Amino acid sequence: MTKFEINDCHKKTIKEICESFGNKRSELINILHKTQGHFGYLPEPVQLEIALNLNMPLAKIYGVVSFYSFFTMTPKGKFPVSVCMGTACYVRGAEKIVEALEKELKIKVGGVTQDGKFSLDCLRCIGACGLAPVIMIGEEVHGRLEPQMIKDIIKKYE
Amino acid sequence: METIKLTIDNRQVEVPKGTTILQAAHQAGINIPSLCYMNLPYLAQEHKPGSCRVCVVEIPGRKNLVPACATECTDEMKVLSHSLRAINARRTVVELLLSDHPKDCLICPSSGNCELQKLSITMGIREINSVENAAMSTYRKDASPALNRNMDKCVMCRSCETVCNEIQTVGALSAVNRGFMSVVAPAFEQELTDSPCTFCGQCVAVCPTGALTAVDNTFHVIRALADPNKYVVVQTAPAVRAALGEEFGYPPGNSVTGKMVAALRSIGFDQVYDTDFAADLTIMEEGTELLDRLSRFLDGDKNVRLPILTSCCPAWVNFFETNYPDMLDVPSTARSPQQMFGAIAKTYMAEKLGIKREDMVVVSVMPCLAKKYECQRDEFKVDGNPDVDYAITTRELAHLIKIGNIDFNTLKEEDFDRPMGESTGAGLIFGVTGGVIEAATRTAYELFTGKKLEKVDFHELRGMEGIRTASVNFDGTYIHIGIAHTLGNARKLLDGIRKGMYNFHAIEIMACPGGCIGGGGQPLHRGNSIVLKARMDAIYKEDFNKPIRKSHENPEIIKLYEEFLGKPLSEKSHKLLHTHYFSHPKK
User: Fold this and answer.
1) Which of A137, B99, B191, B477 falls between 20 and 30 A from B426, CA-CA?
2) Which residues of B132-159 are buried (b: 16+ CB within 10 A; e: fewer)?
3) How many degrees, rounded to 5, is the angle at CA B149 between CA B248 and CA B127?
4) How many Cα atoms within 13 Å fall on the side-chain side of residue B282?
């Protein structure tokens, strides 16, 4: 994976996002949310740029980014795979699904495949308990899963 | 002011509205234990994250116990600080903290000084009901030239974070990650040396446990003393003598200069010198630089950079190199007294004593952690040999005295060796906020006006307020002076100067609260302003009783210029006593 290099265009975008929230430190979470929406993730140079715009310590920004599981410093794949670990999915074998996905994609939870196509994450209940265990790939939901079904599902996206 | 009456443990208390239970209890002589709470009234900073829950108390009728530090008193409130329920909850809290804390107290650098250890002792905790073989959160250790981080011992009180961000505005530390993974760390969990950390050491001064500790050079010094081929000289900073006694049971505010000298001699240092001597030398150089810039300014020279900023404080130097790279030509180029001492010791003194530079070891005893970093800077080395070999703190000196089996309290007072132990009251007050500029004023006044200064004490420059200003009458010319202590206040002044808000001629800045007396290398003050004030008074008292109180009247300084340096700002002075600054922008 190549290192994110920030350019003037990126800096302009970040400046505009910060300005749209009045450059207020109290709006940090909103600013991070919007910035991640734009870049897909929050690499170090992006956080530094936000720090410069808001005139606040970089350590504080990293503190917030590392606290909330929604924020990520690694880019997501083209097809982000999210495994529901809510109670219903968990008791119906979500862990086995995670194992199967890790094996199939050859990455760990939190990782991205070499080709940047898939990333793998866990999340809490997505409200589809009737279909447990459930995964989401992009915006699509796949339910009532068994570990041996994973191979074919992933194939559809390749 | 509206007041509130309440009862704590059957004791009636009357407090102003807005007072917390913890403060009210303290007023009533009830010490509710706390861990994460920190109050710095003289810095207007009360840190009460309410995260440790050690201070929980019972209020009959309320369902839950409340944290005393974060709960305001209400009228007719009844508080039970030691009901069975409160005691049990407090014990559980401490047991849980201990369950995820290393149990290596016997060899911990903070042993004996640890608030968590004290809590455990106070509560008589004898066993910890944790799951057998349960995993403990661990985190990599981080070492820097001045301080060490061991996050396994962090209790997440976040006092360091408040000091680093709110008081010092350095912004090197923040709580990161969450749950068991949470630690206090620099951005991206990089090492301190890559962060904007200035090594001021105030985080160490407030850390209740062994999570943040000073680098310990005690054994380097012991080895140097044992080496028959080394000639070991020691210098002691002004603030050290005002606090060292605290490590031997003296109440704060007792200056122990004579005993300290006797102890150092007894430990085996070949020469016991005084950094105050070098402070006098600093005044000669920095004062002359001030007068030079001032006269050029008064003559209408538009290129002259004013105000001149003091440069004695190494954390402050690190701070402006990191945060104000556009203003590197504003501070005085004069080295700090520690480094001036080293440079003179390894040239002038070495020559006088007939010792080769590489055979001389210069040890400095400092109230400061940044001094450990400063003496390692490349510009203060000659062919790799540093002017100052080891900087140890006041706490390390106390340790050294104990290792040396010296009964400090029965020592007879002794005097420093000459020539580099000769000093004036002006050199001594370098240890308190406002002291450097007062010392400079005493000398600059006489050099500027050509008249004798009758009133040596400049009370308008003294005090504990974070930012102070004064105008001193130099025989008709008013010199405007600014003083700031803590880096947060320094930032306020610097930002004002950048915007052209001030017209100061000279500004003194010290990174630590109260100046060096509140340094990160002193017996831990943990924000206690009474201790700081007592140390400050001790310094001014000693200055008052000094026979010579102006740096330029120090006979050994006069001799040093006659025999060796020529005059202030001479070529030799520039080479040995001045420095240049580097831009290190970091966020």
Assistant:
1) B477
2) eeeeeeebeebebbbbbbbbbbbbbbbb
3) 70
4) 34
ipTM at complex level: 0.84
Contacts of B551 (CB under 8 A, 6+ apart): B279, B280, B281, B283, B284, B287, B424, B426, B427, B439, B442, B443, B557
Listed by number, the residues of chain A in 48-67 with a beta carbon closer than 8 Å to a beta carbon of chain B are: 48, 51-52, 56-63, 66-67
pLDDT tens, residue by residue, B516-538:
999 999 998 777 788 999 999 99
Tell me the whole-structure pTM to 2 decimals: 0.90
Query: Which residues in chain A touch residue B49, judged by CB atoms under 8 angstroms apart?
Result: none
With contact defined as beta carbons under 8 Å apart, do B260 and B241 qualify? Answer: yes
d(Cα B35, Cα B1) in Å, to the nearest integer?
Answer: 30
Task: Tell whether A4 is within 8 A of chain B (Cβ).
Answer: no
Distance in angstroms (rounded) separating the CA atoms of residues B386 and B271:
18
B177 contacts A57? CB cut-off 8 A: no
Contact indicator for A129, A143 with CB cutoff of 8 Å: no
> What is the phi-psi region of residue B201: left when phi exceeds 0, alpha when psi lies from -120 to 50, beta otherwise?
left
Query: Residue A75, preceding bond cis, omega within 30 degrees?
Result: no
In Å, how far from its chain's centre is CA A19?
25
Give the three-class secondary structure for A152. helix
B186 touches chain A (CB under 8 A): yes
Strand B308-309 with A135-137, pairing: unpaired
B282 versus B502: which is more confidently predicted? B282
Kindly tell me the sign of the dihedral angle through the C-alpha atoms of B520, B521, B525, B530.
Answer: negative
Distance between A59 CA and the closest CA of chain B, angstroms: 4
* Predicted pLDDT at B499: 86
Q: Is A6 on the interface with B (CB under 8 A)?
A: no
Give CA angle at B38 (B37, B41), nearest 5°: 140
Average pLDDT over residues B468-481: 92
3-state secondary structure of A31: helix
A67·B196 Cβ contact <8 A: no
| Dihedral pair phi/psi, residue B392, rounded to 5° | -115, 160
Residue B438 CB contacts under 8 Å (≥ 6 apart), including other chains: B426, B429, B458, B461, B462
| Domains of chain B, first to last | 3-99 (3.10.20.740), 142-214 (3.30.70.20), 218-277+338-410 (3.40.50.1780), 284-335+424-577 (3.40.950.10)
Element (H, E) at B66: strand B66-67
Q: How far apart are CA B161 and CA B168, in angstroms?
A: 10
> How far is Cα B438 from Cα B435, in angstroms, rounded to an integer?
5
Helix (H) or strand (E) segment spanning residue B488: helix B487-498
Integer Cα distance of B82 and B122 in angstroms = 13
How far is Cα B268 from Cα B264, in angstroms, rounded to an integer?
7
pLDDT tens for B417-457 read 999 999 999 999 999 999 999 999 999 999 999 999 989 99
